[in-house]
Amino acid sequence: MTTPRDTGRRTDRSPWNWLLFVPIVLPLLTFLFNSDEPRLLGFPVFYWLQIAFIAVGVGCTTLVYRMTK
Fold first, then answer.
1. Percentages of the chain per state (helix, strand, coil), in multiples of 5
2. Which of 14, 19, 22, 32 has the CA that lies 20 to 30 A from 65?
3. How far, in Å, CA of 13 to CA of 5, rounded?
4. How many other C-beta atoms lie within 10 A of the C-beta of residue 47?
5. Mean pLDDT, contiguous 10-residue spans, the chain (69 residues)
6. For residue 33, which of 58, 56, 52 has the smallest C-alpha distance?
């Protein structure tokens, strides 16, 4: 009889998975982008911070994938 350990199945119990909460929680912190200033290339903070949130999400997802692979 084989056990789950013998079959080589992956589990989702890695502590690296907690890092995936960062791109979920970060955009919910409205005080970060609840202003008109500073501006970057004429765009208010709201617009360029949304692009930064995407970059953070991609970075966190890539890091978790590589570390749990």
1. 60, 5, 40
2. 32
3. 14
4. 13
5. 60 89 95 88 91 96 95
6. 52
